[in-house]
Specification:
This protein is α+β, with helices and mostly antiparallel strands and 431 residues long. It has two domains: 5-102, Phosphorylase Kinase, domain 1 (2-Layer Sandwich); 111-428, Aminoglycoside phosphotransferase (APH), C-terminal lobe (Aminoglycoside 3'-phosphotransferase, Chain: A, domain 2). It is built from 14 helices and nine strands. It has helices spanning 5-10, 12-15, 56-69, 74-77, 120-132, 137-141, 149-165, 171-182, 242-252, 261-282, 286-302, 316-324, 344-347, 409-419, and strands spanning 21-26, 35-42, 47-53, 87-93, 96-102, 192-194, 203-208, 211-217, 224-226. The strands form three sheets. It has a five-stranded antiparallel beta sheet with strand order 1-2-3-5-4. A hairpin with an 8-residue loop joins β1 and β2 (35-42). α7 runs antiparallel to α8 (171-182) and α7 (149-165) packs across α10. It is globular, with a radius of gyration of 21 Å.
């Protein structure tokens, strides 16, 4: 049974001594029911968000978020062009833990309604470039996951093996993914500090001089050193704005050239369908398996005849830059596939069938309109449910500034120096 806003609000006094709650209400986050969440008004004038896990798997995710947010010290937050939210306290609620964070007014933009041009799209690209420019030491010092390109590649290969073992994936897709996995040039990239899979719901907007701008970044539970492309894979569901997000990212990044960033992002987006299938098999959920098979079949039709890494995809300059990159060694990390670390509602936007069947675990499927292997899937003609351009003032974020250490200036300078003159013009071209 879901906890009521009043039950959640009552736990605030345990998490925050010497404060009183004078009001409480429901806060809808669009997180597929993984959390019970409420907003509470305090007698000192503050408004806070209270979140508790609604399922056992969400408890681990919430604990990971708290740990990750504590790494964002005041010095780190000064390196970011958006606000870092604050963790205010934790308390027990039955057999669960609740987390209290500050509330920031604003809105989210659904991926399918992200408009091109200056505004939300370009601000997202700039925000991700700033995040990916953070010194790797921020994550390493706190013992968060550090994953090398080879570990990431191996994880993807194991996922394809497991998906193939279900005998439910079109053979053309398996072959397409294996060709991408075998292309060494695709995996010569520089690891970065990443969210580990940002989505449209991760970005928190306010209007600045009349222009939608990213003022906060949400969902930090996957913070790690990994592939920057994982934070861009969701753009497969933003058909009109993807080019501008990539262009703004390329213009702002200080990292080394990554001519196949977009191709890896597309590969990860496609592999989300494989994760959904494997999850259904592992959970023995026939309806999930059926849904995943439908998505995979539609995806296979949409990418027929295309390659993720065409032979002529690289220019000479890109090839030289990629070949010069030497992946940095890293300590062993958890490289499990984490097959339930995704949102089936967003997953359903990336591909589907023209006539969606009744489904219980994901949003209605949509049809693909994919002309190249890395172009976003244009779902605009298939949307049947209304989705406003903004999601209302219901966004919440959590960040902790306790016992902060300043980010080392030499690390910042080293990261900037390493790629300050990187030429990324090719990124701005359509896949």
């Amino acid at each position: 049974m879901a906890r009521t806003p009043f039950t959640l609000a009552a736990s605030v006094t345990s998490a925050l001594p010497r404060v009183g709650v004078i009001g409480a209400g429901l806060l809808t986050e669009g997180l597929s029911g993984r959390y019970d969440t409420a907003v509470a008004d305090l007698d000192d004038g503050r408004r806070v968000v209270v979140r508790a896990p609604a399922a056992p798997e969400a408890a681990g995710e919430l604990a990971a978020e708290v740990r990750a947010l504590r790494t964002l010290t005041p010095g780190v937050r000064r390196l970011l062009p958006f606000r870092a939210p604050e963790l205010l306290g934790e308390a027990g609620l039955g057999d669960a833990r609740v987390v209290v964070v500050d509330f920031l007014p604003g809105y989210r933009v659904d991926a399918a309604h992200l408009t091109p041009g200056r505004g939300a799209a370009t601000s997202i690209g700039e925000a991700l470039a700033a995040l990916h420019a953070l010194p790797l030491s921020i994550v390493r010092v706190e013992g968060l996951p550090v994953r090398t390109p080879q570990q990431i590649r191996d994880d993807a290969s194991r996922l394809v093996d497991r998906a193939e073992s279900t005998h439910s994936v079109p053979s053309a897709l398996i072959a397409r993914w294996r060709r991408a996995l075998a292309a060494d040039v695709l995996w010569r990239f520089e690891s970065a500090v990443v969210l580990g899979g940002a989505g449209a719901a991760s970005f928190f907007f306010e209007d600045v001089d009349g222009v939608p701008s990213v003022t906060g970044l949400l969902e930090w539970h996957g913070l790690q050193v990994g592939d920057p492309a994982t934070d861009l894979q969701w753009l497969a569901s933003a058909p009109t704005a993807a080019d501008d997000v990539y262009s703004a990212y390329a213009a702002q990044t200080v990292r080394a050239p990554d001519g196949l960033l977009r191709e890896r992002a597309r590969l990860y987006a496609e592999l989300e369908f494989a994760k959904w299938l494997v999850h259904g098999h592992d959970a023995d959920r026939a309806e999930i398996v059926e849904d995943a098979v439908g998505l995979l079949t539609a995806l296979a039709d949409g990418v027929q005849g295309d390659e993720l890494v065409p032979d002529d995809d690289l220019g000479l300059d890109d090839a030289i830059a990629l070949l010069d990159r030497v992946p940095e060694a890293a300590p062993a990390a958890d490289t499990s596939m984490q097959t339930d670390a995704y949102d089936p509602e967003e997953l359903s936007l990336w591909a589907g069938v023209d006539e969606a069947p009744e489904r219980t675990d994901a949003a209605p499927t949509t049809g693909p309109d994919d002309q190249t292997s890395t172009a976003p899937i244009d779902i605009s003609a298939f949307l049947t449910r209304e989705a406003p351009a903004t999601a209302g003032a219901t966004a919440e974020i959590a960040l902790a500034p306790e016992q902060a250490r300043e980010a080392e200036s030499d690390d910042v300078e080293a990261d900037a120096q390493r790629a300050a003159d990187a030429a990324l013009r090719r990124w701005t071209q359509s896949g």
